[in-house]
Amino acid sequence: MTDTDVRDALTRASGHLDPAPDLLDRVRAGGRRRVVRRRSVLGGALAALAVGAVPAVRAVRGAPVTATAAGDLGRDAELLERVRAAWRSAVPGLSGQPYVHWAGNTPAGPVALITQSSADTVMDHQGFVETVGGRLRVVAGTLLVEPGTVGPAAILAGAGRDVLVLATGGQSVWYSETYEINAAGRVDRTFVQVPDQREGVVVYPRVDNTGIALMLSGGRTPRVPILNFDERFGGARPVRIERVLPGAGTARLTDSEKIRWDLGRQTGFLDPYGYHFDEGPAEWYLRGRTADGRRLVVQTLVLNGEARVFCLVGAANSTPVVHYLGAYGTGVSARLKVPGGDVLVLRARLPEKLGVAVAADKCQLRFRVRDGAWLPVSGNAAVLPEAATELEVTPPDGAAIVPLPLP
Amino acid sequence: MAGAAFDDFVRSRSTGLLRVAYLLTGDRHAAEDLLQEVLEQMYVRWRRIEGAPEAYARRALVNRATNRWRWRARRPETTLDSGHEKPGRDHGEDVVIRAAVLDALRGLPPKQRAAVVLRYLDDLPVHEVAAALGCSDGTVKSNTARGLDRLKQVLGPALVTDGGER
């Protein structure tokens, strides 16, 4: 029995379970009851203190308040107290005392790294306090870390969110400033080790905030978190649309096939340690079959809003040959301006004269060969015959039909 | 308090967390109760844990499942032996596997059970399992290895005998 068998057995043993449909409603109702209870208890305790009753003080875990911290502002007692006050006000209800590990000047103004213990979770909460408009503000998002430790984490500070403040947590962190897409459509990066700082915090001014990557030594996942990245740059991931084209068969790909036939599962085509805009055009995954019986996949992958187009060909049980056809905007796509908004059309001629891949979300498609009759396309995506020369796109909402020459 | 992000978290992760809770407790109703308790706790503290809700949820699930196990050890209950979920003759193959897996997991100490479930059901890397269990990477590795060995010993024959082709 292999590890894979064990994994499979655990999955099958629990795969029949789904949460009750009303779980969220019940959780919210229960959560609200808990909030009311906590407020009642807290109110009672405060009232007892106010009338001079002897409070039941319990020793709580937590680092002592220290007069200084690391960093060039670490001896500014007034600033440290302001940092702690800002933290307490934004992150109330933790036990122990907030501990400022580092406070320093950055091009975005003073920034501080702070932790505080939590009796509830048996873990510490770690966060950053930054300067916005001359005032201290706690950066959204905290990290749970082992008690008494600092975990590798960063923020993007400043009005342009282009000052990277990175706490290494004593670990070996690797930084990459930007990336390139190479001729094979893969993501190329060069990582450099973050210099070992006695103070544990490194500041990078004026970074490309959607190009950087932070990796722990040895390529361990997950990537080093940038706690406030999603607040500014996050969004909904592009929708993925899968189509099984005629002739491909209805059988689903097995897990091992997916690893070989879906570039979205291969780290070389992704950027697992990088930070990007989430939004972008729909990601297509079209699976079909060539005339000589090989499997054919046309796939687009979106990174930082830009789509790359790939074609995978090979025997179904083999590792496919991957062809990179280019990025949107370089001849493999067209942007149609219609009254309801732009429509992005995939129109990529495939290698080996395998045809032309076309796709346009929510649109109807027809094609023709030179001046021949228009022929319908089943659905909104297809691999057209190699001889096809023109595509007709009917955008959603009945907008005008747009003829489009094929490459 | 919690808002849309919390709702999204519950919608997207409750299935996975329920399955983890099920394998940790070996009982569907206990798993549902456990998950609801943890999610209610998260609802109250959402603003503080929003940066790492998964880590919080896993840690809370493991802690509560372990405490529940300890509590049951002190006050043994008379219900829910392995026969509870045992299949009848005409149940599907997955039910057979489920019974064998639950039996095998019941035989593991809680930390080994949690390590195996998080590593092999949730596919977590060692350091994330360590964070959930509150122990070192080395302890996770040894717990996983021991748990896995034991699981293979127990599961191997059961699956070969009862499961047939998989």
Present the secondary structure layout.
The complex is a heterodimer of chains A (407) and B (166).
Chain A: H1 3-14, H2 23-50, H3 77-90, E1 99-104, E2 111-118, E3 123-132, E4 135-138, E5 143-145, E6 153-157, E7 163-167, E8 173-176, E9 179-181, E10 187-189, E11 192-193, E12 201-204, E13 213-216, H4 229-233, E14 240-244, H5 255-261, E15 283-289, E16 295-303, E17 306-314, E18 321-327, E19 333-338, E20 341-349, E21 356-359, E22 364-368, E23 375-376, E24 381-384, E25 390-394, E26 402-405
Parallel strand pairs in A: 14-15
Antiparallel strand pairs in A: 1-2, 2-3, 3-4, 3-5, 6-7, 7-12, 8-11, 8-13, 9-10, 15-16, 16-17, 17-18, 19-20, 20-21, 21-24, 22-23, 22-25, 25-26
Chain B: H1 4-25, H2 28-49, H3 53-74, H4 93-106, H5 110-120, H6 126-133, H7 137-163
DSSP helix fraction of chain A:
10-25%
The CATH superfamily of the largest domain in chain B is Winged helix-like DNA-binding domain superfamily/Winged helix DNA-binding domain
Helix-strand makeup class of chain B? mainly alpha
Rounded mean pLDDT score of chain A: 84
Please give the alpha-carbon distance between the first and last residues of chain A.
52 Å
Instruction: Report Rg of chain A.
Output: 28 Å
Largest interface: which pair? A-B, 50 and 58 residues
The helix-and-strand class of chain A reads: alpha+beta
Q: Report on the biggest sheet of chain B.
A: none
Transmembrane segments (chain A): 41-60
InterPro entries (chain A): TAT_signal
Keywords (chain A): Membrane, Transmembrane, Transmembrane helix
Keywords (chain B): DNA-binding, Sigma factor, Transcription, Transcription regulation
